[in-house]
Amino acid sequence: MRPDPLLAVDDLRIAYGPVLAVRGAALQVGRGEVVALLGANGAGKSSTLRAISGLQPCSGQIHFDGIDCTRTSPDRLARAGLIHVPEGRRIFPTLSVAENLQVAGAARSRRRGAFVVDDVYDLFPMLVPLRQRGGWALSGGEQQMLAIGRALLGAPRLLLLDEPSLGLAPAVVRTVFAALAQISAEVPMLLVEQNTVVALGACTHGYVMSGGRIVLSGTAAELRAGEALLDSYLGQGDVDTEDAAGGDDPVRGRPG
Amino acid sequence: MRMFTMAAGAAVLSLGVATAAGATTPPAGTTAGTAAAGTGAAAAVDLCSAAAAGPITIVHLTDVKGESPTAIDDFSNGSALAAKQINEQCGKEIVKVERIATDFSAEAFETNVLKAQEMKPTVIIGQGSSSQMSKNSLVTDGGIPTLWPVGTASALKGGENYSELSWMLRVVNDTQGQVWGKYVVDAGFKKAWMECVTTQLGVSGCGAAEPILKAGGVEVIGRSDSATDATDFTNSVTTIKDKGADVVVLAQFPRPTLAFAKAVEDNGLAGKVKLIGSTSTELIYQALSPAAQGSMVALADCNPPTDAPDVAAAYQAAYQKGMTSLAAVTYDAVFMTVDAVAREGSTDPKKVAEGIASTHLKGVCQTYSDSGSHALAHHMVVTSFGGGKVTTEKSYDLDADGKALAGG
Amino acid sequence: MARFVALFLSGMTDGVVAALAAVGLLVLNKATGIVNFAHGDLITLGAYLGIWLINGHGWGYVPAVTVSLVLMFAVGVVMERVSLAPLRGKSVHVVVIATLGLALALRSLVGIWQGTDPKRLESPVPGRSTVFGATVTHHRLLIIAVALVVLVAVMGFFARTSWGRQVRAVAADRVMAQLAGVRAGTLSMAAFGFSAALAGLCGLLVAPLGAIDLNLGFGIMLNSFAAMVIGGSGSVGGVVIAGVGIGLIERVIGGYVLTDYSEAFPFVVMILAIALRPQGLFGQREHAARL
Ligand SMILES: Nc1ncnc2c1ncn2[C@@H]1O[C@H](COP(=O)(O)OP(=O)(O)O)[C@@H](O)[C@H]1O
Ligand SMILES: [Mg+2]
């Protein structure tokens, strides 16, 4: 039995001109859940996240804790606690590490979050000596940690994470997911990943997207059990796209 | 005082314009005989009789912006007042002034002058920028006589911008330069600094002033050439202070003139060095502090409050500002047009052109006449601004061709 | 020595004014991506507001300047709302042309409102002193002092305050800033107001130096464009150094050599800077530019 949905997406459709990127997707994230959204490159995962955080015009219903996300600006949703860590991390290159974290104060607004600056530095100790370093001078792993830290200081009530493992060395992926495991005790997450193994290890529930549709869903255990089917979906997808390029650029990736 | 009878409130007949035969000083080089022959009459012509030749329309190209924005109002006020006075005096509409707003760009001028010609007016009054005269071939092609409230040597007969259908109502720049030089010599100054403007045409009159200064025994301690929008004159003023100049030929545009005068004042030189401004100074002297006003004189084509007090008073009443020489020349241009039509008895452009060529109009600013050079102005004044009003200090006559100081 | 002091002071005055104007342009450009060609006419408007209140209504300098700056802020905000917000998302060329249109409109409106005759504004500190034989008007010292204080305050604002950081975040990545909860739209509006107020301050400061007419701000804007390009159009500090630098080069070097061409110096330096270091003398690598 899943808890009450904090985020409910229904019949989501996204078109880029004539291209239908998402064709009627539905998913939910309940309080206390970590939900994985899996799928091959070009399946429509990032588009879905962008629609949820108000960046992407779409049709269908998206509700976050009673707020209609299709009619609310991204900055308002952020201030309501819906925090999106986008594909490519998007660290502010001209701001220092410390300043990148401080900007999150805008999203926190007058709310109280579960995390303070020291918690972020405890979670990611390697950021401590980098406090004064410019955002442009960070490695991919450092950027990912900073992006997650920045999101945490925005007092998230739901975290949207777009491929946090992308382009990171295995050791760094382990560090990041260890931190996400700790964070999930406090904040529910919607985790987009192509790396099925780490994602299924971290989530309570999962959806598989292909060609803009949700083709499979279930608990982490159910999805792990149907690994063959899962692989068949992750193998296909719209491979004509170049949009993963955004994720390849560790500095300034842009979604799809 | 110069004889002048065109004034609001005068009897209809006194609108008649005195011809050269009645003027106090016929222009040098023109004998009374030819002048009389040229006009065919020694007596005043009744301007109202021009009505018989049909409606007179004048298209006035009015500036909307430029380096001397303040001149814009003066130019258009002058022609408006003249038309109003003539029509009121004659009791019917004899002359109508249409306006086309234009700016200083050559493209705008081309379009607008063609537009003006299409309206088939009796005369076109050009705008107050001598750079537009580089397009004088349009005037020749269009066939409509055109009067310019400017003066530039290149549009004199024989010059590259000459047109047989265009006349200049104001003194040409080089002649202004000669007046600058002559005044400095006459007033007994010893050490001059020359502050000159560089325009697209490269003319400022400075070049013509310099030899006259040297010939008159005035030491030129230095010269600076700056743009029409120069704002800082620390360098010039420091040199003036170091070398002890007692006079500055300030051949600049309005705003730099003001900035220069301010710099002179700020450096404690007000009263120690005299500034001789260009013809635009009369437009802007009110923006100077009283001390700076006192240390400034300037060239002008005329000084209407002194030269034609009645007209200047009517102007003051109509526009709440003093009548400048710029207002006076467009005022005169309207009278010149109506006078030409009255004398020729026709509004045919060829006839009107003949009428202008043979004009001996005694206007507010000048007694206009053309000896063939197409320069109509033969007189210039130097004015001072002490006490917040414009006073004529000295006047200079030019030769009949408008190219040089008479006898100088 | 007297000559050098006089030239240095006039160069400093021009320089800090160009720097103030350039910082206004830069902040707006960073927060909104717009290059505002109406900046020069905003400078002019500031001067006329001062004249209107001080000469026209007999106000004291402090209240007149305060009210003028508040009005300028409002003008900037209205400008953004009325004419530029509707163009958000349009090509940058469209927006730049819109700012040119705004420039002409502003100039005409000021002309209609205040007339086209040049005006004069007395300095609040009319005296002068002699330093090393050079006459130094107190107003020039006032300009330098006020501009430097304001420039330091502006730099402090962007480096240290939360709003300053948010504007820099918007400048770096507008979408990401919104995802971090920054009200980018409101900041754009505020940046317009702030930039217009800085422009107004420039106009108020330079007005007593010479005469005020409708062309007052145009030349200042040209120098400030040069300062922005030379400074790397990324960093407030770089633009300030560039602004002061070109003022000094124009006046001090121009006071000794090629005097008649000194007005062109800023642009010669600008062209050299573009040729040698397209990122500006003080800009770092593209993504490392700092606001
Ligand atoms: N801005 C865009 N313009 C046009 N097509 C896009 C855009 N962004 C994504 N797409 C297309 O939409 C589809 C889904 O992309 P995306 O949501 O980025 O997938 P994923 O994140 O699952 O890799 C792809 O075919 C992609 O090419
Ligand atoms: Mg993606």
Descriptive notes:
The complex is a heterotrimer of chains A (256), B (408) and C (291). Helices cover 33% and strands 25% of the residues of chain A. Chain A contains eleven helices and ten strands. In chain A, the strands form two sheets. In chain A, strands 6-7-8-3-9-10 form a six-stranded mixed beta sheet, with helices on both faces. Chain A has a four-stranded antiparallel beta sheet with strand order 2-1-4-5, with helices on one face. In chain A, strand 1 and strand 2 (19-30) form a beta hairpin. Residues 236-256 of chain A have low confidence and may be disordered. By secondary structure, chain B is an alpha/beta fold. Chain B is built from 14 helices and twelve strands. In chain B, strands 7-6-8-9-10-11-12 form a seven-stranded mixed beta sheet, with helices on both faces. A five-stranded parallel beta sheet of chain B has the order 2-1-3-4-5, with helices on both faces. In chain B, helix 4 (136-142) links the parallel strand 3 (123-125) and strand 4 (146-148). In chain B, helix 5 runs parallel beside helix 6 (206-215) and helix 13 (325-344) packs across helix 14 (349-357). The model of chain B is unreliable at 1-43 (pLDDT under 50). Chain C has 291 residues and is mainly alpha-helical. Chain C has a domain at 15-216. In chain C, strands 1-2 form a two-stranded antiparallel sheet. In chain C, strand 1 and strand 2 form a beta hairpin. In chain C, helix 1 crosses helix 9, helix 1 (2-32) runs antiparallel to helix 10 (236-256) and helix 9 (216-230) crosses helix 10 (236-256). Residues 284-291 of chain C have low confidence and may be disordered. Chains B and C meet through helix 2, strand 7, helix 7 and helix 8 of B and helix 1, strand 2, helix 9 and helix 10 of C. The structure holds adenosine-5'-diphosphate and magnesium ion. Adenosine-5'-diphosphate binds next to strand 2 and helix 1 of chain A.
